[in-house]
Design goal:
Layout lengths: L1 E5 L2 E4 L6 H14 L4 H6 L3 H16 L5 H15 L2 H14 L3 H6 L5 H4 L5 H14 L5 H11 L1 H24 L8
Antiparallel strand pairs: 1-2
Pfam family, one: CMD
GO molecular function: peroxiredoxin activity
Organism: Nakamurella alba
Amino acid sequence: MTAGRVGVVPRVTDWSVDPETAEAEAKAVALFGHVSDLFAALGHAPTVLSGWIDLVRRLRTDLSVDPRLHELVVVRVAGSIGATYAETAHRRLALKAGVRQEQLDAIDLTATAQTSAEFDDTERAALLLAAKVAAATAGPDDVLTLMELIGERDATELLVIAAFYCCVGRITNALGVVPMGGG
């Protein structure tokens, strides 16, 4: 069933061991065109992987929030918690979504992103929420500030995105899943 490793776990390579595992692989390939390293690691828990892929698909394709804000939030969360796997992947996705390289360069672990001229008020509020979610210090006022700028739906979606990518980062870090090339 496995060959090679993804971090600390063997990479799942035989996705035909049971119908549930085969279905999880099919979902991954349908969504991304391949099985990512994270999915190859999570393939040992096909029930979890299948639900995970469903959630990722919804977060990436079905939300109303601006994709640029989505990717800025993911990059900020991933950088804040040292999740290089997610940060590397989402820096590429951010550029594709229209985030400028100068904006990505301005995101760091200090308050720079919250004061940088590279960001407008909405982006600053989203980045602040992302940083606070990553630090487990976000509160209702942070969400309300963002709601005033982009509405309840989009602010709630960004909150969920931030929390989900905290989860992604913590799992990839715990498993030792790193970007191609080691970081």
